[in-house]
Design brief:
CATH topology of the largest domain: Rossmann fold
Number of domains: 2
Strand content: 15-25%
Distance between the termini: 26 Å
Largest sheet: 7 strands, mixed
CATH superfamily of the largest domain: Crotonobetainyl-coa:carnitine coa-transferase, domain 1
CATH class of the largest domain: Alpha Beta
Length: about 400
């Protein structure tokens, strides 16, 4: 197949991935693979539009960069044959269909394994491949609510609150990406392919981490704490002369350093605040006293003072301020993709840095138009021009024509 040329010796450059995913969770998993060199073919139904919005919009471009597009009607016998021809050569298939859909189309794991015994078949669903809710549809916010996340997010008086990003979608995508890499390692050792899958609900329950462990071990149900840390104090949002900051001075060492650098001798001498347990027990009053002190400083001044003595403290930015921060600019968190109509698009790069693998300045390609690479991919499968034209005339494939 067509291997990427600009990304030299990337870890996944020898692997081909068939991407059947839509929405966000599945594409997040595939993006991990495409960013690190995999030859990803996005297989799409022959319809206009894009589930993530405009194909040329920020969301779609950020999710689907570094992919090629094959527009293929899997509901036809010829379309299924083309898919299986690709599956014979592929290393990984990624899908997030509902459980019954892939079986109806004949592209489920068992069917693909018959065609390619070493295939790694990766699935994301809302609730898992089996169980009472396996047939239910799911979206991120529903999972946030069902997992318990919304009842530990926000202020106690404010009712349940969703997290401001699609956290269950992106978490499931990251976990599936890890699962695919584990399956590839397993295949290197054994030669065996396998089905690897996760769900939004499983991923979100896992992301609850120590909050969930408080329940599973002790039967404790964590509650909403607003901007305060649930078990440490003072750690949260505090006012300054010109805004607010996040401040964490919860250990005994940090607490003493805070009192010293902030000139809070009175607080340092209070027995109620001398231990971690005491500061948590008296958190409400402590917050008021700390807040009265931090309000005497500007945000910039307080951040500098606290960090100078090892106390984590930072501004509360909007997204624009975050990306304009001089340290974020130093990290170069954006990377360009060349789009034939839009020019160079600054997209978010992978946050992973490897000392022996260089990230190129540009992504291999921008998010593709529907069917932009159908001809190229079918030629690589040794389909003749006549055969390609027949598939097109029969509505099995669609080929994007650049204006």
């Amino acid at each position: 197949m067509n291997k990427k040329t600009t990304e030299k010796a990337l870890p996944l450059s020898d692997y081909m991935v068939l991407d059947l995913t839509i929405a966000r969770a599945g594409p997040t998993a595939v993006r991990l693979l495409s960013d690190w060199g995999a030859d990803v073919i996005r297989i799409e139904a022959p319809v206009e539009g894009d589930i993530a919005g405009s194909r040329q919009g920020p969301d779609s471009q950020n999710l689907h960069r570094n992919k090629r597009s094959l527009c293929l009607n899997l509901k036809t016998e010829q379309g299924l044959k083309v898919f299986m021809d690709l599956a014979k050569k592929a290393d990984v298939i990624v899908e997030n269909f509902r459980v019954d859909v892939k079986n109806r189309l004949g592209i489920d794991y068992a069917s693909c394994k018959k065609n390619n015994p070493s295939i790694i078949y990766a699935s994301i669903s809302g609730f898992g491949q089996e169980g009472p809710y396996a047939q239910r549809p799911a979206v991120d916010q529903v999972i946030q609510g069902m997992s318990g996340l919304m009842k530990i997010t926000g202020d106690p008086e404010g009712g349940p609150m969703r997290v401001g990003i699609a956290v269950s979608d992106t978490s499931a995508g990251m976990f599936l990406g890890q699962g695919i890499l584990l399956a590839l390692l397993h295949r290197e050792k054994t030669g065996e392919g396998q089905w690897v899958h996760t769900s939004l609900l499983e991923s979100m329950l896992c992301k609850l981490d120590f909050q969930a462990a408080r329940y599973t071990m002790n039967g404790e149900i964590p509650k909403q704490e607003g901007n305060n840390h649930p078990t440490l104090s003072p750690m949260g949002v505090f006012y300054t002369k010109d805004g607010q900051v996040n401040l964490a001075a919860s250990t005994d060492k940090m607490w003493r350093a805070f009192c010293e650098v902030a000139g809070a001798d009175t607080l340092a001498s209070k027995q109620d605040y001398s231990t971690v347990e005491g500061r948590l027990k008296n958190r409400k009053v402590l917050w008021e006293e700390v807040n009265s002190i931090t309000s005497e400083f500007s945000s910039t001044e307080l951040v500098e003072k606290m960090n100078s003595v090892g106390i984590p403290c930072g501004p509360i930015n909007n997204i624009g301020e975050a990306f304009d921060d001089h340290h974020v600019k130093f990290l170069k968190m954006t990377k360009e993709a060349k789009h034939p109509e839009l020019g160079e698009l600054p997209l978010l790069r992978s946050p992973i840095t490897m000392s022996n693998v260089r990230q190129e300045r540009l992504f291999e390609r921008a998010g593709p138009e529907l069917g932009a690479d159908s001809n190229e991919i079918l030629r690589e499968l040794n389909y003749s021009e006549d055969a390609i034209e027949k598939l097109k005339s029969n509505g099995v494939i669609k080929i994007h024509v650049t204006n």
